[in-house]
Amino acid sequence: MVQQSPSLSLLPLQFDVLVVGGGAAGLYSALCLPPTLQIGLITKDTLSVSASDWAQGGIAAAIAPDDTPELHITDTLKAGAGLCDRAAVEVLVRKAGKCIQNLTNMGVAFDRKGDQLAMTLEAAHSRKRVLHAADTTGRAVVSTLAAKVLEQPNIHVFNQALALDLWMHEGECCGVQLVHQQQLIWVQAKAVVLATGGGGQIYSQTTNPAASTGDGVAMAWRAGATLRDLEFMQFHPTALTKKGAPRFLISEAVRGEGAHLVDSSGRRFAFDYHPDGELAPRDIVSRAIFNHLQKNPHESVVYLDLRVIEPERVQHRFPNIIRKCQKWAGINVFETPIPVSPAAHYWMGGIVTDLNSQTTIPRLYAVGENASTGVHGANRLASNSLLECLVFGAQLENLAPQPLPWLQQATTENMSADYKLPDIDADIEQLTQYRAAIRQLVWQSAGISREATQMTDALARLSQWQKEFKALPLTQFLSNLQQQSTYHLPPPLTVETLRQWTELRNLLAVSRLVLKSALFRTESRGGHYRSDYPQQNNATWKAHTLVDGERWNLQAPQEQ
Ligand SMILES: Cc1cc2nc3c(=O)[nH]c(=O)nc-3n(C[C@H](O)[C@H](O)[C@H](O)COP(=O)(O)OP(=O)(O)OC[C@H]3O[C@@H](n4cnc5c(N)ncnc54)[C@H](O)[C@@H]3O)c2cc1C
Q1: For the chain, which has fewer Cβ within 10 Å, the N-terminal or C-terminal residue?
Q2: What is the C-alpha to C-alpha distance for residues 349 and 14, in angstroms, rounded to an integer?
Q3: Would you call 282 a catalytic residue per the annotation?
Q4: Of 282, 317, 505, 530, which is the active-site residue?
Q5: pLDDT > 60? residue 5
Q6: Would you say 39 and 234 are in contact if contact means Cβ atoms under 8 Å apart?
């Protein structure tokens, strides 16, 4: 039996602002919010686990003497294939210098050349403008931010606290339903900031961590927020591909430093597809690899050859890649090319936000990869995403959330009610099976190359799985619990099981939204390629895809 009970969790039931996510976006947002506010920051893992922590290449900022914000804006707009919002790009680029200064003041140890910050080139940048800390830039940033956050008396961090849904009241967001320390609780906040990262886990092949299950986007969608451009997914061309090894990213900076992309005969085939060869935009290089492998079906990988770069340079710039290739694939990069193939990497679409990171729902904000600020358009320029986390986190610096018009403790009513927990052993096994099946299905139908029949079939399959998921005894049980009440999870229902259930619910929702958006857009652009509509069609489709509930509409992008 499960019983409603007063909260035993150490998590307070009220904050001024609740930040959901402890990656670069969540941490920097928390630090930039006014220090007079009481801020809760939750993460479903710990502060050291996030995509931000895994970022290798660096952060773009037009601060070198030979660079200008205008050049960075031009490169960003070009990569975005006609769908960036210029005003958002202006904010991103022009506020970059201040954020970088702030990070260096906090102690982030970016690599230096003499007394200047060192910069490298990445694909589609017209200048060397990517700051880095060896090949673990994300870790350098996140560990510094996390240390700062933990020093702040007004910021309260809760690890292993999983947000399930937004708490909505009369169209406004007034908190979050979450599970923490074996309890389901409702936490009120005058404002909620979603910073839950991307959704790469809808694909079987992804560079994203296991936690990137699109939770923020799914929660916002269920709450009625407008979403945008969900079909635009960036596939990274070069993830390590070796049986038994994780899809570890081999950073673009490796190609920026001169590594060759070759096939098994040692030929640099990328020039067959684009004059910039391996430094063409990511979607083009990913498709080049995809097509090259399709033409040579006996091969399943291509190779990145670092032997053409000075060994000292490799040692200095890529110590982590050297280590990880050795550890996971037994490859010495000084002697052997690295086997690679494309994997889902970055989600351009997300929850619509304005220049102040506000969503279409009052009191709800979104920052980082789960937001759609308008800076990436149909394709992200490399290293603009960490920058987006910082700049749009900083846009919250003047947030002054209004008191909630009503305050009602979300606990203890109806304490005597009991709910019988059904037998969930079979459900637990099924959760894992559904997850694997969804990821395979979405990779095959909404991956690098998409086509109507496959997507329609995939949607039919998803809708069947959705029905089965709804019918699971565990789903029935959870949906019967009373809103805004605290529950202690009875064994064998653990936090881990509830996490599997929640993530599956979100993966199902997000996979469907991505597939429907990809089916809706009958053209190819940026990170969305349709083999049945291979051309870009500006007459009809130079427009954002807006998703409101079950409605899909077009919205003209802002002037460029
Ligand atoms: C391997 C790799 C390399 C990359 N390299 C670069 C790079 O060099 N430069 C660059 O600009 N970008 C890079 N990117 C992209 C960039 O890292 C991400 O876009 C960015 O870090 C996203 O930050 P975020 O804070 O939005 O999300 P994340 O860093 O993913 O953080 C998400 C946080 O939300 C929490 N969370 C999620 N769901 C819930 C929930 N339901 N309840 C509670 N907490 C939740 C997670 O626990 C986590 O703390 C890379 C990405 C990957 C995967």
Answers
A1: N
A2: 31
A3: yes
A4: 282
A5: no
A6: no
